[in-house]
């Protein structure tokens, strides 16, 4: 019995220490994000990194998400005789919920994992130590550009995801299900408010911060060798994905 | 001058440095030898401020770096250069940009001046025509040379070499050792070489210190170390399996 309590206590202490470490990491990153000199060229490079790595997957998943939504919602709405509301239902689902969450999950799997692996390899090959030994702050060169790039890129990728998803839904609704194109879009304009768009924006901003924070932290504190990098990469993707869904619930309940 | 006093470091209950005492005079090339996993690289990381000791002091030109905060430590690091074991070149930029990196980030030199310095630094280490290649596209020996050029381009007063010849063939090993000696003569820096290249290191260093089980067991000139009566030093130099150093 005492052994179980001791193990539980050790686990709780270790978890608390890790959470503290992560919080200090984020605080440092935010601090250096506002203290010059700023590394704009690195920021642009990382914006390209996130965008370039994730664009294809965003286009693909966005269009299919919209198409699946159209099929499923049409079936449900028709039962209630409200199939004219298919357009706004797809738009609201994507803008408020599915767009930010799915886009964030896709970027985590594509660019987030690559980011953790890249920083992890820099750690084990002593490139991060090399920066420190040159009296250059690794946060300024590695972490801040990624954090800022993610906060900029996530809302943009989410917007692309939403638009592609809405057009995916249009293709199924109009070409497959025989709905009028005018109805699909005109009802959307009536039902989608600025508040819904703001909600999606806030979500994607915060998901960007979460993904970059977790992926950078896991890479920066990676273990030894290839196994360490592989473990960090897996942990980064899993932790980011879980946090995205948990945070989505809290954001949803606050902003509803 | 670097003065290390009673340096102790423990990782998860395992004492890696057990009271290291060592003085490294100005402009001297000091080699620290010892068996693999004996704490040499840990000692080096303390000397460049990447690790903090449990206790003890490291005075660099009279300043105890173990008590310094980030900002003050960075001021000390402005005068240090480190050649890491694998070179630690940034793999996302080419050779030229790697060597130019410290100058672009730490100085206000114009691109033309930086270009002159980079070309000179690469010439000094015997490299031509590799400027546009990425680190992954050059050989291990070349990577070490590029890393040496990057280390020396800021003309540091103290240079640390972490096993600079590990994994290289004998000819490249001799060429890197010669490079260290010639650049030391040219720049006059204080050098600390972590190595277990016996006997080659005796021809490179001015002084040798042997680290064993977390303490410096002997220091002296290469000849003094060669003729040491200390059984630990004698066994390490001869590479014998019998003696106070466990083979495994």
Protein architecture, described:
Chain A has 256 residues and is mostly helical. In chain A, 88% of the residues lie in helices and 0% in strands. Chain A has eight helices and no strands. Chain A has helices at 2-33, 40-79, 86-124, 127-133, 138-176, 181-191, 194-220, 225-255. Chain A is elongated and about 65 Å long. The model of chain A has no long low-confidence stretch (mean pLDDT 94). Chain B has 248 residues and is of the alpha/beta class. Helix content of chain B is 35%, strand content 25%. A six-stranded mixed sheet of chain B has the order 6-7-8-3-9-10. The radius of gyration of chain B is 18 Å and the shape is globular.
Q: Any idea what the radius of gyration of chain A is? A: 21 Å
What is the radius of gyration of chain B?
Answer: 18 Å
Spatially, the strands of the biggest sheet of chain B line up as: 6-7-8-3-9-10
* H/E series of chain A: HHHHHHHH
Helix content of chain A: over 70%
Structural class of chain B: alpha/beta
What is the H/E string of chain B? EEEHEEHEHHHEHEEEHH
Helical fraction of chain B: 25-40%
**How many domains, in number, for the residues of chain A?**
1
Distance between the termini of chain B: 35 Å
Largest sheet of chain B: 6 strands, mixed
The biggest sheet of chain A, with number of strands, parallel, antiparallel or mixed sense and barrel status, is: none
**Total of DSSP H or I helical runs spanning 4+ residues of chain A:** 8
Oligomer: heterodimer
Overall strand count of chain B: 10
How much of the residues of chain A is beta strand, in percent?
A: under 5%
